[in-house]
Amino acid sequence: xxxxxxxxxxLNRNVxxxxxxxxxxxxxxxxxxxxMNEDKPGIGGELCLRQKRKPKYSAFLKEMGIDAPPWVxxxxxxxxxxxxxxxxxxxxSQENYRxxxxxxxxxxxxxxxxxxxxxxxxxxxxxxxxIRRHHIPLPPPDEDQFYTxxxxxxxxxxxxxxxxFKIYDCDTFTKIVLKNMGVKLNxxxxxxxxxxxxxxxxxxxxxxxxxxYESFGTLKQFLNYDRKVLRFFCLWDDSTSLFGxxxxxxxxxxxxxxxxxxxxxxxxxxxxxxMPFLLQRGKLPKYGPPGVYQPGEITDRIVLNVxxxxxxxxxxxxxxxxxxxxxxxxxxxxxxxLSIGTTINVWGRKVLLCDCDxxxxxxxxxEYGIENFTSIDCKPPPPPKIERKFPPYTGFGSExxxxxxxxxxxxxxxxxxxxxxxxxxxxxxxxxTLRFFAKLITHDCADVDRLFxxxxxxxxxxLSVFEPIERNSGLTGGMFLKxxxxxxxxxxxxxxELSEYIKAEELYVGARVNVNGYLFLLLNADxxxxxxxxxxxxKFPMSSIELALQKLKKQESKSEELRNVFxxxxxxxxxxxxxxxxxxxxxxLTVGELTDHELITIxxxxxxxxxxxxxxxxxxALAHERFKRNTFENFERLIANCVYQDRENKxxxxxxxxxxxxxxSRLPLTHDLLVSLLSKFEDSEGQINYESFFCALNWRIxxxxxxxxxxxxxxxxxxxxxxxxxxxxxxxxxYVKLLKEVFGLEDE
Length: 748
Fold this sequence. Notes:
It contains 21 helices and 26 strands. It is 26% helix and 20% strand. Helix 13 packs antiparallel against helix 14, helix 16 crosses helix 19 (671-681) and helix 17 packs antiparallel against helix 20 (690-697). The protein has a 6-stranded antiparallel sheet with strand order 4-3-2-1-6-5, with helices on one face. Strands 10-9-8-7-14-13 form a 6-stranded antiparallel sheet, covered by helices on one side. Strands 18-17-16-15-20-19 form a 6-stranded antiparallel sheet. By secondary structure, it is an alpha+beta fold. Strand 13 (343-346) and strand 14 form a beta hairpin. Residues 75-182, 226-368, 430-537 form the DM10 domain. It comes from Equus przewalskii (Przewalski's horse). Its main location: cytoplasm.
């Protein structure tokens, strides 16, 4: 049976008798006691980790009169020591050891130590943190204890994990703290110089070529002129060479380093390859190309080799030649060499400076006092226009198709003006067709009285002629000329140029038009044609009222005679005459100064507005005709709506309410007809008796006789009654207004 464990007896034979074996979990229990802030000895009499690492500064703090724990009193206070280490370098003939400098930091709050190595340029060694911050134990046999502040001083050796550091100095704060703690400081020492670095520095100092020193002051120029660029617009005329051309360039001069960059401005579809630079940024020599130089021949400094002699330990060196013997001198373009009108040499290319930007002008004006900046035109002269000649028309096909076969190897169809066709094609009530009534001018008795309708289509400038069918005339009538473009008379048939065709501007009332050998006299035009020509009076001068009145003003001497004739023709003193009388008077007075179309323009301008619905019975008859055509019979509902709106039971409503009710009920009446009907039933207060109004419109209860066709007044042309199928342009003309505005004659 085993004996119980006794104090002082060790189960481990390798441990002395003064100690005994302690299980590992006892140490764990001691650390738990540390976390519980217990300062009593642990199990087995061992000190816990806090007791081992607790700084011994209690007496020092009491002397300083500080009543605080050390980790509070010494918070963020670090001692800094300068040290070096001799690092052996085996297997290298140039050096046996290196001197490596270090910084040792001691943190007073918890006695932790950190070792850093400052960075040395081009050392090739891993530098920075050499030993991270922690408690460093003392070297054996005291490895169970840690370094404190009392282990540090100046000019002593200290060992960290086998590395022997030599402390030779510290900072001022460290010296003050150590003196206050009672540490007697040694005299500071010196860090020995690394032999290899000393040898390397001596060699570099000896072979350094910059003696005597010569400065190149480019920094000031860079700081003053950085981002300041002069820009010139240039021209390189290479048209004299084979396949050469005139090339437009942009030259940029950088003031910061006197370099030049040239870019090329390529026009659209020029055929040249788009290169980013014609000349990359660099200094431009004045006399280029200068030739090929050997490497090292172009340099800023001249260096001489220094021979050390025939001694055993000779040292060869270099020396800067201040006389610069054998130096190749090159002249480069400066800002003073550039001006408008100057030709510069760009590696054998003659470039002319034509213009510059505003910044460049202000720079030269400030620096050099230049005022004249007259630009030179760098645009090439226009190339000579070569007239292309085509063979004459052969007579096969149309002229346009024959011409297309001469333009390309593969004939293509003639392209029509599609935009004009889309804008001028007929749509809705807009026909874009000019229609004229015409007669045939001929000496044949059978064709003298023939009338035609000439239609001109604005979409494609085509023309058609139609003859109205007249019974028992002995003529067939119908289509006289199908829709085609009509050539102007007197043109050569077989020629190289395209033929000219009749345009819309050539058509007006009274004009003579030759249509394929048939001569027509334009007698009249429809309402749409007259309105269109007056709207576009800039293209149709015969429809311009200003031009027509200017011709009439030339007869100012006959103004009194003209007024007397108008008054004599106005038997009823209504201050207006009919169109035929008006035409006869002006034609007799002007003696051919005015054309028929200009006369129609004046008559339309001074016409008397016609009341198309003079009689209320005519208006009601027209309304009944539209109601019958659309089978509209909802008059009782309309009266019921009016009764609902008539809250005061006055049997009348405002005209605007009746009009709104008719519009909302969609009465099949035009706007003009509805307004005319409402005006006939409206009283002096602007109100309408709705019962009488809708009862009059009720075609079932109050029918009215049907309208008889109106007889239109026919126009006389050239003193002959032609029996035209169209009415006259206007019915009555206000001659009083005409005399007042044209001649300034007031009504007597």
